[in-house]
Amino acid sequence: MKLELALAAVLLTALTGCGGSGAGTLRVGTLSDSKPNAYSEGGKFTGFDNELLRAIADRKGLKLEFASTDFSTLLGQVANGQFDIGSAGISQTDARKKTVDFSNGYNYQALGIEAAPGSPVTDENSLAGKRIGVVQGTISDTWLTATAPAAQVTRFPNDAAVVSALNAGSLDGAVFDKASAEQYAAENPGLEVTKSLLTNVPHGYAVRKGNGQVLSQINDGLRQVIADGTWLRLHRHFEPNEEVPTEFKGNG
32-54 pLDDT, tens per residue? Predict the structure, then answer.
């Protein structure tokens, strides 16, 4: 009897040790407006990052519960245990690695400068003195500060607020994730991507430091969805115009 009770306790610990709102459920912090990576549509959180995470969870028998937050607070919320996973096209920078641990890379960061047609904001060399919007705490924010220190930077909590300011004419331009910038240009006739910038910075899912159990499950599931072609299928659906790096082509 004592042995059976001990085994039951071990099983209960294994089911609840991942955190989240219930046994075996992982809470995922994500965004509601960052197409095509992470957004809400029809009451469901979707996008490339979230659907890829769902596929990973399916391979590992994990349950996910998504909740919306602002990008500027996401990593802190992962670090303090409010979320088990951060899913939002998060670039793995050295500064962020001091706050959270990251999964293996599942995509690469590219940026897009966005402005109205005919705007003087055309590339990275035209930003000085211009009113440029970014989402606070993103790689776009870091890049803009380093690349164009003379720009008049306005920081917003989310993409929707930046797009709204662009459409209202209160900004000269903005910097987004490249795929997001292209999406917003397609949805807003008064906007266009004036320059795309490629980087070799990988995206990763964020987890609390030391949470090796969740990290190993994500990484193992990621290897499976790359190998079986699921990564490629989702990427073609959400980012059909983006180049596919060789390491993600799998068997698809």
Answer: 999 999 999 999 999 999 999 99
Of 152, 200, 197, the residue nearest 172 (C-alpha): 152
Domain count, the chain: 2
User: Tens digits of per-residue pLDDT, 180-208?
Assistant: 999 999 999 999 999 999 888 899 999 99
- Does any domain span residue 216? yes
Residue of 223, 197, 250, 243 lying closest to 105 (CA atoms)? 223
CATH number for the domain spanning 227: value is: 3.40.190.10
Whether 84 and 195 map to the same domain: the answer is no
What is the DSSP secondary structure assignment for residue 240, as one 8-state letter?
Answer: T
Rounded Cα–Cα distance for residues 235 and 238 (Å): 5
Could you list the residue range(s) of the whole structural domain that residue 157 is in?
109-200
pTM of this structure:
0.77
- Please tell me the predicted confidence (pLDDT) of residue 252: 53
Q: Are residues 69 and 192 in the same domain?
A: no
Sequence-distant (≥ 6) Cβ neighbours of residue 73 within 8 angstroms: none
Mind listing the pLDDT tens digit for each residue in 130-150? 999 999 999 999 999 999 999
Looking at the structure, tell me whether residues 148 and 120 fall in a common domain.
Answer: yes
Q: Quick one: which of 153, 111, 149 has its CA closest to 133?
A: 153
Q: Which two tokens stand for residue 15?
A: 């089911």
